[in-house]
Amino acid sequence: MIIPRRRALAAIGAALSAPAIAQTQPSSTQPASTQPIRCVCGSSPGSITDLIARIVQPGLSRRLGQPVVVDNRPGAGGNLAAEVLARAAPDGQTIMVISGGIMTLNPYLYRELAFDPARDIKLVSRITAGGFLLAVPASIGVEDVDGLIAHLRRKGDAANYGSPGIGFAMHVGSEVFLNAVGAKAVHIPYRGSAAAINALVAGEVDFVFDSRGPLLPHLQSGKAKVIANGGSLPDIVHPDLPRLADRWPEVVVQSWTAVAAPAALPAQLVRRLDDAMRETLAEPEVVAQLRRVGNGPAYIGPEDFVRFYAEERERAARGVRIAGVQPQ
């Protein structure tokens, strides 16, 4: 039986909200405070980032020896929550499960930010990373990327693509893809992924980049077809799915999440938080829960994050230029 995605996410969210029994010993480096740690989240309850935060919440609580409380602060593309983190005392009492777009795209999309992501936020541990999937309507008979390129060139000025909105990673990534393959298509922004994907299966647009979750019902019905993985890592469900970056290295269309802290967090507390996250992501049940919401663990630590983040910021800056998105 196929469970609708909304019901599945709600069930997972409800399960994750239940108190966990502490079994893992906390880290040997104990904090001075026994107060709950606030984990801010820039999206609403039930969103993917929120679910990821709640999946890692029990393991972090056990290992840090303090309750971790998720504090949802949606708004302004996640900037409201990130500002709370950036202005927090660097004492380990405030952390954030942050999405990559806040750290990479938002500095180029918002004319005025109350914080500087690179200066004010410390990326501690990457939690997940996954490529957006390149999907086409089954009705156009395209089987692979070369077929899509040929299709777009045949349609010429009539070719188009959909996205959840202007400035989203799927919009910017689509423009980078078109630039790399030498094709053109008109961008049609919709209000969210569901509307863009509905337009895809109706044959109103020629392709979209999006996550597996929103695409899944239409993949199962045979109305849409995934032809490539936009990420830098193999797809967690179909590891043999072709990666665009293998042919066009500049085409990386992906999302990621991380646990972050105020930039001035002392090194010993960074290590402590990183250790807790790394060990949590090794728990089989955590791995299974992340896969159920469409994200596999993709841990990297603070040192590797410096290089990864620099690459992602460079990709975002180039993509925004190609897409011609103006800051608001």
TrEMBL record:
<keyword id="KW-0732">Signal</keyword>
<dbReference type="Pfam" id="PF03401">
    <property type="entry name" value="TctC"/>
</dbReference>
<dbReference type="InterPro" id="IPR005064">
    <property type="entry name" value="BUG"/>
</dbReference>
<comment type="similarity">
    <text>Belongs to the UPF0065 (bug) family.</text>
</comment>
<protein>
    <submittedName>
        <fullName>Bug family tripartite tricarboxylate transporter substrate binding protein</fullName>
    </submittedName>
</protein>
<feature type="signal peptide">
    <location>
        <begin position="1"/>
        <end position="22"/>
    </location>
</feature>
